Amino acid sequence: MNAASPTTDKIYRILCVVGARPNFMKMAPIMSALGALGPQVEAKLVHTGQHYDVAMNHQYFQALGIPDPDINLEVGSGSHAQQTAEVMRRFEPAMDEVQPAAVLVVGDVNSTIACALVAAKKGVPVIHVEAGLRSFDRAMPEEINRLLTDQLSDLLFTTEESGRDNLLKEGIADERIHFVGNVMIDTLRANLERAVPAEKIAADAGRAGFAQGRGYAVLTLHRPSNVDDPAILQGLLEAAAKIAQTTPVIFPVHPRTRATIEKFGLSHLLDAPDVLLLPPMGYLEMLGLMRDARVVLTDSGGIQEETTALGTPCLTLRHNTERPITVDEGTNTIVGNDPAHILAAYEELLQGGGKAGRVPHFWDGRAAERIAAILFGWLKQRD
Description:
Layout: H1 5-8, E1 12-18, H2 21-35, E2 41-47, H3 54-64, E3 71-72, H4 80-98, E4 102-106, H5 110-121, E5 126-131, H6 141-152, E6 155-158, H7 161-169, E7 177-179, H8 183-191, H9 198-204, E8 217-220, H10 224-227, H11 230-244, E9 249-252, H12 255-263, E10 275-278, H13 283-292, E11 295-298, H14 301-310, E12 314-316, H15 325-328, E13 332-334, H16 339-352, H17 367-382
Parallel strand pairs: 1-2, 1-4, 2-3, 4-5, 5-6, 6-7, 8-9, 8-11, 9-10, 11-12, 12-13
Helix pairs in contact: 2-3, 2-8, 2-17, 4-5, 5-6, 11-16
């Protein structure tokens, strides 16, 4: 008998975890790339239900061509501790049932650390996509999730070279780190031609002709540091209203942000003809808004990357970023949440057109292919 024959037809089951909407855009190309490897690799999708809006989840899955989850844990909302614990409690039986060769997690949400911890405790290899990103701000829950997930991971795939530097400083062995590029940009490139134009979005919202011929700004806000403090939130909304006087503002409002705006009695600040409030957008809609915007103002990490890939100027309403390449090479400028600084940066952008930037290395739409090839080779080598 050939010595290699026992493993020739071995099937490697990879348990791929998504929990929140940013994960969906990252996992779509990974599932596709793993599926293209052939019958020896069986990728199974677990949706923890951390973000559980049925309509929004369906909208993202359908738009991005993600297969329906094989397992849905239906965790729902809760405090960070409650949510993380509940994901762990429900994920362990799923692992016992599937008996995966590895667990693949993406990003930095609570589901990421929860599933990585369960896998590591059970001796199953952890694969982390988007490893090594650091804001160096431990007041951000996501930073804790990033640090701990990377320490638990066996294979770490980075989106930019700074990720390797961060991981090496934290004691991660170099051979476990692979710079592959950005799977978010795989999804963006694959779907750009299908992006929904801003004109259609405005018309569907009953505001046909909004900003036509004048350009527009896009605003997104969701981080607790910006929306939970009434003084900070008021200043941000006042800055947005001021910008709208010269550049109409399209503001897809996160449900949590909408609730705090109403709670603090700030709705009147956005009651202006050149401010268009929208519900949360699907992926193709948001992609269209960003593609054609004059500027995007955001506290989202993923949007910093997407605007860099699109060449759209971005003002980040935070004091730091875990994605420094978007500043060093891309179109992103960190402006914080002080209204005076935001407005000064906006005026400078109007005068100069904003940072041109360039698309970083390996943001070429093939990151997921590299991940799949490296992972498959690594799994076979372990046998």
